[in-house]
Write a structure and sequence with these properties.
The protein has 489 residues and is mainly beta. It has three helices and 30 strands. A hairpin with a 2-residue loop joins strand 2 and strand 3. The protein binds copper (II) ion. It is an enzyme of class 1 (oxidoreductase).
């Protein structure tokens, strides 16, 4: 399992009265199979309330919502509130065997969503095995009453869960596209022919406006983007295409471009054929990081930046693709091996009871607390050729315990083991500031000098560039949360 966990549990505090709400809304999610037809093939897929994508949850900043989840499917399930910080309430945030046990078929469990500082677009998805492929939906968080967007109010808002769609627009109007990459692994370039897009928020936090021809959206990320319908009335393709460094010849890469049509209302004859947006090459790593590199938080009086300036805990974590040998080379990976993944050379093994419960009830033998703070073996991480013996990681259920209110910097260093690739990293229960990034090996003396400590973007999912690194900072102030989910989200 490509998951690593960072538990933040130095002091467990239960803030009963922190999130006083006038009323708590209740929603019902019935997880069940439904028959769906796509591209002329019909099959049963797991859904919420029979809908695919699942229902959108509309909320106001600071609201608490209870979702009664009924599992009428055949497999264990949990629902994860992706990008929601869930302050002091990690118990129903989803990840099975980490913060809760799964909901078994035939049973019901009420999960609470506690919104606090998030504002913008988030999403929810199943968090057991690969059920999230079809069990997911949007969470849209509006400004509180009496407050407003830090950009001109758009004429309309459109959630786009990549994979679906058609959009009708009026000339002269501005649309807020709330884009969610719900794909399992794929980083996507997204663009609209002949239109520019202005990014105004990511992962439930606003950004300074960033106008681009295309954006790169990593799995799990959300982008709030303004689209001005300012071109000649016509039909235009909006399209998404995978960014991948996998060699096309090996068939690892799906070269399809998924499209939808932006259709201006009115009477005219649409162009034929429609023009496709212009994309970077599918393997253009430099292009893939340009939007990330341009993101800045608002850092104004109403949306201050609280980036820790001198972190008390500094961690360096290598992020690697690994391989395990299989009997008689019988697995489907390179040379009959089995793919895995690791952080600091430890590949996460799921426990049989959830870690949070084990912590709370002091049950020993479920996890260890020896997660290394720095790579156990230092080598030229991004070298073209690396010794084969480095490919096989240790296996363990190790956590890193952080002091409550400590300020933390983590540098994620990609490695070129097996296959250097980009690694989406996502932290549960926290947003973090992306203070720096680069290609090659992180240099702890030189690179911090060019960190952005003024207006770094606040994210809950980032991507470690292919053969590169990112540095993030946050305050460990949300006990019980902090599962780091690497690639599996
Ligand atoms: Cu998440």
């Amino acid at each position: 399992m490509k998951v690593f966990l960072l538990q933040i549990l130095a002091f467990l505090l239960f803030g009963g009265g922190i999130h006083c709400q006038a009323s708590t809304r209740r929603l019902t999610f019935v997880v069940k199979e439904a028959s769906y037809t796509r591209l002329c093939s019909t099959k049963n897929i797991l859904t919420v309330n029979g809908q695919f994508p699942g229902p959108t949850i509309y909320a106001k900043k600071g609201e608490t919502i209870i979702v009664d989840v009924y599992n009428r499917g055949k497999e264990n399930i949990t629902i994860h509130w992706h990008g929601v910080n869930m302050p002091r309430y990690p118990w129903t945030d989803g990840p099975e065997y980490i913060t809760q046990c799964p909901i078994q078929p035939g049973s019901k469990f009420s999960q609470k969503i506690i919104l606090s500082s998030e504002e913008g677009t988030l999403w929810w998805h199943a968090h057991s095995d690969w059920t999230r492929a079809t069990v997911h939906g949007a969470i849209i968080v509006y400004p509180k009453n009496g407050t407003k967007y830090p950009f001109p109010k758009p004429n309309a808002e459109i959630p786009i869960i990549l994979g679906t769609f058609k959009l009708r627009v009026d000339h002269g109007k501005t649309y807020l596209l709330r884009i969610i990459n719900a794909a399992l692994h794929e980083a996507l370039f997204f663009s609209i022919a002949k239109h520019k897009m202005t990014v105004v928020g990511t992962d439930g936090s606003y950004t300074k406006p960033l106008t681009r021809d295309y954006i790169t959206i990593y799995p799990g990320q959300t982008f709030d983007v303004l689209l001005e319908a300012n071109q000649l009335p016509d039909h235009y393709y909006m399209a998404a295409k995978t960014y991948s460094i996998a060699p096309v010849a090996q068939n690892f890469y799906d070269n399809t471009t998924t499209t939808a049509i932006v259709q201006y209302r009115g009477y005219y004859t649409p162009s034929s054929p429609l023009s496709l947006p212009h994309f970077p090459a599918y393997n253009d790593t430099n292009a893939s990081v340009q939007v990330m590199a341009g993101l800045r938080s608002l850092a104004d009086a109403e949306h201050p930046s609280n980036v820790p300036l001198s972190p008390s805990t500094k961690l360096i974590y290598t992020v690697s693709v690994n391989s395990f040998l299989c009997p008689n080379n019988s697995c489907a990976g390179p040379n009959g091996t089995r793919f895995s993944a690791s952080i600091n050379n430890i590949s996460f093994q799921s426990p049989t009871i959830d870690i949070l419960q084990a912590y709370y009830y002091n049950i020993s033998g479920v996890y260890g607390d020896k997660f290394p703070s720095v790579p156990p073996l230092v080598f030229d991480f991004t070298a073209d050729y690396l010794p084969l013996e480095y490919q096989t990681p240790e296996i363990g259920t190790e956590v890193r315990v952080l002091e409550y209110n400590s300020t933390v910097e983590i540098v994620f260093q990609g490695t070129n083991l097996v296959a250097g690739t980009h690694h989406p990293m996502h932290l549960h229960g926290y947003s973090f500031y992306l203070v720096g990034w680069g290609f090659g090996n992180f240099d702890k003396n030189r690179d911090p000098l060019r960190y952005n400590l003024v207006d770094p973007p606040l994210q809950s999912t980032i991507s470690v560039p292919t053969n590169g690194w990112v540095a993030i900072r946050f305050e460990a102030s949300n006990p019980g949360e902090g599962g780091f989910i690497y690639k599996a989200l």
